[in-house]
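The protein record minuted underneath.
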Amino acid sequence: MKRLRNQLYRQPMDGSALFRADATFCPQTGKSGSGTSFASYNYPSRFIRHYNNTLCIASNGGSNAFDSSTNWAADVTWAVSSPWASCPPSPERVIFAA
């Protein structure tokens, strides 16, 4: 996953330092008080959020619609669990590690 204009897209790794930083998210205690929230490495006040059927990195309030404070804590909190099936090795898979 890579950030482009604060939205997240599936992109192949290009090997650059910017790509690595944009594709890195740091897990922390969920902003809703449970679960896990993922802060952007490059923009630590922005978290992975689902908003209007897209993934973005959002702050709690701001000029973008996806920065809305409404439901922000719930929308940036994820329930991380074991996968239902194991993934075959692939250079395109996304790995979140704590």
User: Anything to note?
Assistant: The mean pLDDT is 84. The helical segments are 17-22, 72-75. The two ends are 17 Å apart (CA to CA). The first strand starts at residue 2 and ends at 4.
